[in-house]
Amino acid sequence: MLSTEPSTPLVVLDLLGIFVFAIAGALVAVRKELDVFGVLVLAGITGLGGGVLRDVLIDRTPPAALVDWRYLAVPLVAGLLAFVYHPALGKMEPSINVLDAFGLGLFCVTGAQKALDAGLGPAPAALLGMVTGIGGGIMRDVLAGRVPAVFRGELYATPALAGAIVVVVGSYTDLPFAIVAFTGGGLCIVWRLLAIWRHWQAPVPTGPASV
Amino acid sequence: MLSTEPSTPLVVLDLLGIFVFAIAGALVAVRKELDVFGVLVLAGITGLGGGVLRDVLIDRTPPAALVDWRYLAVPLVAGLLAFVYHPALGKMEPSINVLDAFGLGLFCVTGAQKALDAGLGPAPAALLGMVTGIGGGIMRDVLAGRVPAVFRGELYATPALAGAIVVVVGSYTDLPFAIVAFTGGGLCIVWRLLAIWRHWQAPVPTGPASV
Amino acid sequence: MLSTEPSTPLVVLDLLGIFVFAIAGALVAVRKELDVFGVLVLAGITGLGGGVLRDVLIDRTPPAALVDWRYLAVPLVAGLLAFVYHPALGKMEPSINVLDAFGLGLFCVTGAQKALDAGLGPAPAALLGMVTGIGGGIMRDVLAGRVPAVFRGELYATPALAGAIVVVVGSYTDLPFAIVAFTGGGLCIVWRLLAIWRHWQAPVPTGPASV
């Protein structure tokens, strides 16, 4: 193993976020009528893709997802569960969307912090925090043959970016990381939940579509 | 050149596998009515994409495909051949699928071994062996605007994973690499050929598709 | 900051190329009716994607686009401009295509040179020069849900490859870099502009499409 074992509570949170993302990804695969392998791959890509992309970009390779076996086991289990129990899970989707918001809040915080740890400046670190949160879902949608949901009005990226910005700004203060992380993650989660509840949409271009 | 020259028989096998994959990729491009450049790119991506993705993930950059000129020359030749002779090659597709199975068996073995050499654990090494075998085809399908065939019932990934697992398990034994490699590659090839011959399909989710 | 500050004139040219590419990418997003976030992402991917892919492949991570804040600011501004002024920008598209040719000529030259600097051989360096020029546009098209324009007859990749080859060949001569760069970039730009003006197309496969 190449990584030092990270502190347990953070890893448990990370694995929970991956689990929820993976369930959401597997349900997309089921609806696209993909086979069991497609379900497992989309579960894994949705749960791990954003973090792997971040790790490749900041040169933390091999990515954590390929060094700690639990990061592979969680989406595998989630994908198999979704393959078998998708009718029940599909009905629970509103609850899954709520959990998904928590995963998003978690990933934007840990992603931004890892980018800062790698020595990146404030703007790229905030960007990579957002990418950690939304990258897996974008890859899932491309592989499933649809334009990423996050580009089509779904208010998903902005809360992740806001949470990541809080972490970056907080790193310039004397505040303890726990407080900064809770503030940033909380902002992302509350914003995302409000967007789901109130059907907030990201603005689309106005005026005649130029041809 | 950054690499030491690898032993010739393995390289010849590798290049043969890339050639067959590239022909298959170029035929997809011809059917999608892409231009000569699209045919060459899909040939190259199909032949080299899985290995390049693996090399990026295990931090063996620049990837072998960018260090040894023969790895670029082979898909170039394959793509040009397919561009000109695609009517004949299209008719030979059953034979190409058989050769493709040999490429798959080869890549899952070499991919898993390279991941082990990079210090990865057993589960990620098996995963990367499979990725080496199927990654290029997935990229080809995404670029050609279709959902990857490997997600739609085609029994292709499982044999590659099985072959890679044999290599990983074998690395914990005292067996010589040649025996382990032939067993793993052979298992993958036979399974894949049986799947083609018997029209075996990967299972799809059952029950009502949740909306 | 991890990079040394590069010399100003080259950076200004680089940023101009990114700006034009980003405008073109944002207009694709507007036409696909993506939201403001989709417009910004496609602007950023189109402007920066080719260079980031090159940097990952030659192990120059974190990529320049994540180290120098100006590389992020430029596509952000371009995307916001296109979001607001797309009706006017859409009408200016012929002019944008001309500027785009200059961006292509610039990127194929700098991309090939950076690959040579990283120790790659002539064929991969030429390939990466072309990838730097066309990679962002391919990623944009995949994310927007369409087969890359560069595969569908548009004569775009060949001029980029030609320009990159000039740079590679020139590196084996005693000619000063400026002369080689102008020759390579100029060849690419003139060829691309002629292709736009004369509606040159890349050849497509002939004969019955094999099924």
TrEMBL record, chains A, B, C:
Chain segments annotated as transmembrane: 12-30, 37-57, 69-86, 98-116, 122-143, 155-172, 178-197
Boundaries of every Glycine transporter domain copy: 12-86, 98-169
Keywords noted in UniProt: Cell membrane, Membrane, Transmembrane, Transmembrane helix
Keyword Phosphoprotein: no
Source organism, top-level taxon: Bacteria
Annotated Pfam families: Gly_transporter
Recorded family membership: Belongs to the UPF0126 family.
PANTHER family membership: INNER MEMBRANE PROTEIN, UPF0126 INNER MEMBRANE PROTEIN YADS-RELATED
Protein name: Trimeric intracellular cation channel family protein
